[in-house]
Amino acid sequence: MELPVLLDAAVAALLLITIGYCVVLYARLNEVRKSNTTMKKLMAEFTSATERAQAGLLSIKSTGTELSNALGERIDEARALKGDLVYVTRAAQSLAERLDVALDEGTTPEQKPQPQKRRSPKRKNGVVSKALVRTTSESERELMAALQRAR
């Protein structure tokens, strides 16, 4: 009789160990379930943040395209104005040279020059020298000085 009792005791002990292991396993499974729920929440938040970021990038891209187009138009306008300014500057330079020659000869630009020998303005690097420009007022002298500096 002792042998069946010993075997029953051994089986009972193994059953207690199995029950203890099941309790520990159950506790760990609960932790995994809680972590799984937390992980699902984090994934939902991450997905939402990713979608917002994509929408923001699309908005930035469209704004960049609009700004690029507007800047291109401004650049085209600036190039057109540059051409106009070059033309006006050349015309003003030509007029200034004619006025300088007319002042040297004592005529007005509308009058034909007298049959004297025409003197060409002395130039230094393509600029009429200051000595040939006759100004009568302080504002004219300031304007001429500003024009000389701008070149």
Describe the structure.
This protein has helices at residues 2-105, 138-150; strands spanning 123-124, 127-128. By secondary structure, the protein is an all-alpha fold. The longest helix is centred in the middle third of the chain and has 104 residues, at 2-105. The protein has 2 helices and 2 strands; from the N terminus they run αββα. Helix content is 77%, strand content 3%. A two-stranded antiparallel ribbon has the order 1-2.
Topology record:
Layout: H1 2-105, E1 123-124, E2 127-128, H2 138-150
Antiparallel strand pairs: 1-2
Mean pLDDT: 81
**Major β-sheet strand ordering:** 1-2
Let me know the number of strands.
Answer: 2
Inertia-based shape: rod-shaped
> From the alpha-carbon coordinates, what is the Rg to the nearest angstrom?
48 Å
Secondary-structure-based class equals: mainly alpha
Largest sheet: 2 strands, antiparallel
Share of residues in helices: over 70%
Parts with pLDDT < 50 across at least 5 consecutive residues: 113-133
Instruction: Give the termini separation.
Output: 124 Å
Q: Strand-residue fraction?
A: under 5%
Give the SSE order as H and E letters: HEEH
Separate helix tally? 2
In short:
The protein is 77% helix and 3% strand.
From the structure above, extract its key features.
single chain; 2 helices; 151 residues; mainly alpha
